Amino acid sequence: MVAGAPRLGPWSRIWRYLVAGAIGLSLWGAVIAAYSAPRGIELTADDVAVIGGFVTLDLVAGLVAVAVLPARHRHPMIASVVSVGLTVISSFAVGPAMLAVVSMSTRRRWKPAVAIGFLWVGSALINELVLRPRVPGTTSDLAFTWAGGGLAVAVYAVCVSTGFYIGARRELLASLRDRVENAEREQTLRAQSARESERTRIAREMHDVLAHRISLVSLHAGALNYRTDLTRVETAEAATVIQNNAQLALTELRQILGVLRSSDGDEHAEPPQPTLAELPALLADSREAGMDVTMRVVELDLGDGPRGSAFEGLSDSVSRTAYRIVQEALTNARKHAGRAPVNLVLEKRVDELLVVVRNPRGRGIETELRGSGVGLLGLRERAELSGGSLDYGIDRGDRFVVTARLPWA
Fold it and tell me: Does residue 57 sit in the same domain as residue 79?
């Protein structure tokens, strides 16, 4: 079978045979009608017997041509040669021969098509010039013969063109199918690469926090080991500090469990990453860049106390995650929505921080920049490692919405 050709189901096979059989029966009926109406010649009993023999031979040869059709997939040339050759003695065989020629032409090879074409025209001429005159009551007319030959060439050209079209369409569909499969595999690899890259960045960012916590634990543990003059209250306070920092360090470590920091030979750890304390500066930079950004806070008061004091109790890792989510959402809005207004909502709930960023869909001013499609995948991985979740999509108002739910404690 041709590469890319679909496997035919039962009904697909049946209707092809029905069409070929219907064409053959129609032509066979036309031949019977022509033999039954001789041109002014009175037929004898022997002539009727001869005509009956020709009609029977026509039917038998046509049935043989139908029986050959199942071999057209594995042996297209043999099936075409046999079915076309039978048209010399059978008008019924023309229908199966047409199906065999179409199937053979789906290979899109010109040499077999030309060779079968000569056989097709030759069989038609032999039938008109040799076999037909031998039937009692029929005569051979040169004009009718030429017309029949021209019709045979036209029918064969239609069959070959149909087969070439089907073959080209099958190759196109196979090519598109391969491209889709390759694109899906590449997208999977990009997603995996994005997750691994995000895990590595998270491991780098956690380095400073863990080092800070563990250094405090080591300092106070050393004090308990060497300071024998501490009072009971001071000892309890030091133990409390050790316990709290150990618990915080375990919390941070649990979030990056299984994530290995890549080794690039850099001897110095990366500086601490920004948190929600730097959110006002981020929004100010976005507004200076021309964006229309509005922020609404629920159960938070960013105006009281030092910058970021409203997020007291929120772990540094979760705060960094929330900051990155807002940053990525603003970047995407600037790329894809231009100067469209962006709405940011920060809400403190019982045990979680809700971050929602909305912006209308549109054509951004940076049309030359095409997103890789992995930024949000990385943020989802980051949110899940923080014990939260992140969703994004289009809402009923045709706005792109990024929603993150992060644990407060």
Answer: yes
